[in-house]
Write a structure and sequence with these properties.
Layout (H helix, E strand, L loop, with lengths): L11 H9 L8 H9 L4 E4 L8 H7 L6 E4 L3 H13 L4 E4 L5 H13 L4 E4 L1 H4 L2 H10 L3 E4 L21 H5 L5 E5 L4 H10 L6 E4 L7 E7 L3 H12 L4 E5 L3 H13 L4 E4 L5 H13 L4 E4 L12 E6 L6 H8 L9 E7 L1 H12 L6 H19 L4 H8 L12 H4 L3 E4 L1 H13 L6 H9 L3 H7 L15 H13 L3 E3 L7 E3 L3 H5 L6 E4 L22 H21 L9 H9 L5 H4 L7 H14 L19
Parallel strand pairs: 1-6, 1-7, 2-4, 2-5, 3-4, 5-6, 8-13, 9-11, 9-12, 10-11, 12-13
Antiparallel strand pairs: 14-17, 15-16
Length: 624
Amino acid sequence: MSGGARQRPREPLAVLREVWGYPAFRGLQAQVIEHVLAGGDGLVLMPTGGGKSLCYQVPALCLAGPTLVVSPLIALMQDQVLALRQLGVAAAALNSTLPPAEQRRIERSLLDGSLRLLYVAPERLVQPGFLELVARARPALFAIDEAHCVSQWGHDFRPDYLEVARLHARFPEVPRLALTATADRPTREDILDRLELRAGRLFLASFDRPNIRYRVEPKHEPRRRLLALLREEHAGQAAIVYRSTRAAVDQTAARLAEAGIRALPYHAGLPAEERARNQERFLREDGIVMVATIAFGMGIDKPDVRLVAHLDLPRSLESYYQETGRAGRDGLPATAWMAYGLDDVARLKALVAADDGREERRRWIDRQKLDALLGYCETTRCRREVLLGYFDETLAAPCGNCDTCLEPVAGYDGTVVAQKLLSAVYRTGQRFGAGHVIDVLRGEDQERMARLGHDRLSVFGIGRELDPAGWRSVVRQLVALDLLSVDVAGHGGLSLGPAARPVLRGERRVELRRDPALRPARGTRPGAARPALDLPTEALGRFEALRRWRLEEARRQGVPPYVIFHDATLAAIAASPPSGEAELARIPGLGASKLARYGAAILAVLGEPPGAPGTGRAAAGGWA
């Protein structure tokens, strides 16, 4: 615990209803807020879109002093500040892009008490001069967002975050709340240790994102399948496509653009101006597809991303969860689609095995993380069960909203086919790639085999029971199981892996997955993404009219459309059009400030007179 209870001008629930327009807290929010207002420290783990920000933003409007929020990226700070100002909350961000005069103005606002929330980067927060400023401002709360950045076991480790621990020594009476959407058990333990939060309370919410449909498939013409997804299931919707290299980003973005998709590239190798321009377009325009490396995403709070696609395997399930979590932040249906192949598996295994100076424990943890990721890809179980199990959470029953639930995948005893493949690799000299070994097993290309003498091997032609795609699946799975190794530095030659011998001797059974036949992505087939909105035709017309109004208003103000209203709020208005401001005030997500600011315009769009009876809620001027 840190400090004691502070005077509260308003109760948290009253603040939530008046400022944010929500009738009640969700999940663990109320518990976290009460704990913080009582002066307690804590670590909060909630999924993306689960309402983490409210856990410190509501207390910020209940406590006497300002709240300082540590955030890793300028874009993330700016997004939060824009959204808060729309709600009538006095918030600001201090960063290196601001001119000196603006920085001084924000510092004065912090000192005179007119600022409720100040967002800062970790490197600024611990500067001696800034710490003196903070001490004079008498802060009421420190919120440490994206807290996984402090952990060496996390997927986004940032050394600057280690300095945040100094806050406790300097301000022992000020409560600290660390928050993240992604942390397995080792990462959670590391956060608690490095931020000195062992005496605080852990709030562990469900990691489940039931609105996301998880789909994983072996790589087969992946760019064509991605194009089908974008055209047939997510036409005109915002999407993020992740690639592992800058060259792959540029190539994929160019191919999609040639196919008529509004696709833009994003990676660290682009000029800063182009990178910023592309990000701005993604945030402020509808239907942009961003093709990016993992450099893109943490600072993006765009709620209406309907598809997150991976054309390359991420490094771990934490990375995958974090990146796919950028889909459907508004709670509406979204898709997380990933294609993976032998090259992905071999590349990541080579990275983990490389002797690059990492300590043995780091290498061991990396191996465990990779094994968990590959297990998720190759599972025949409900994907959500596997994903949540990685975060120590048990799902009561299969989710019914992933590919393996909608189109069950069979497992089979693959011991014999594994033995055939391993024998073929061994007898051909452990230097040929998968294509050649498969040709040997199937008895193909006899002229070439005769030149090499491989037509006389005992394994020649013994594998005709599987087609080439079936054997490629077996190769990929045996590499994932460490039964085969791939020479990624050379020409992809296969060799026996460290676990192969017991299989060849018949001492170990091998369970394999039978990949389902790939079919074109169609919106009507089982497993296709559901429409984001299920509205009657008349309501859909109102919804589109409201979206057009929102876009015009956003352009007028120079802000992203979603900071004015989320799609979910506009859909609720369109589904049950209010007859006046009193009814409009009952729509979730429409707080007092937004009602006063936009109520008349919304009613005008709906064809209602702006002066209808009922005044709704008063403007939230008191939160400045």
